[in-house]
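Structure Section — protein described below
Tokens — whole-number codes for backbone shape
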Amino acid sequence: MGLEQDIKNRALELGLDAVGITDASPIGREHVEHFEAWLRSGCAGPLSYMHRNLKKRVDPGKLMPGARSVIVVALNYKPLALATAAGWALPTATLDAPLGRVAQYAQYGDYHGFIKSLLRKLADCVQHRTDRTHRFKICVDSAPLAEKALAVRAGLGFIGRNHLLIHPRLGPQVLLGELITTMELRPDEPVAGTCAECDLCLKACPTGALRRDGFLDARECISCLTQYGPSPRIGTWLFGCDECLLACPHHQRAPACANQQFKQCIEPGELNLRELVELTPETFEATFSDSPMGKVGLEALQRNARICLQNAVHGARKMSRSVEGNSQPRISVPQDMPRRM
């Protein structure tokens, strides 16, 4: 068994769901040109950091001098309920208990630290296996690295029309991490994959942020608006947005998260918008300190909660006027409609 297969086996033993290897050369010119055109178009909007560190973003060797290989890993985060229950529905919201919607990845603890801890263990294992001194750099989302393009080159899938990496088996709900190393490893081959004629994600996007010219307009994306808003266009999305994810057929066929150490810390049915508006700093810290939602801060979260509450109440009243004899109008939460270079 070769070193590359040993690395992959160990990554899977640690609880990661997929792993691939690519060299540390710059990403393909087509990805760079698309990214540069996206920046020029203004679609980055509030994501000002995307304009920085371009050379590092497209070249792992600039991010870590002497780099020879990149080990790319993926962690599936599809909630168990979505994978096991046919016709699974979000918790029902009412006027008395209007609920805010939260992107699936944000229902777990902060994935940055979790994946980094697994990559540290993987690096230690590789060092021990080779009995040689190699350097490693761990990257998880926040580093300026074109991780999806590298994941494609490492054979982990293709980038769909929803701008997410779509793994052939795991679907689009995967979190990525990278281990850049000075070790020279045999790279994997990319796998074929395409959305073909499917455009369900584009149709599902409530704001038109998924454009048909191939650009994602961050100025219109609900996921961005919940973090950089405020905007009434977020609907009842309290944090993030999964509309394009939920619409994807690959997501619907994907298995549930298998890593039992990666636990959901927030249940969607617990996020009562009226209670969130009255949340104290102490309760906010205790509830969201280990969640991606905690990074936006209490003020922004309550701002979103107030907007969602207004939209939810407006939607419920509109529905009650169209349904005769409904003494307790219920808020309609879309269930069939459906995360960065």
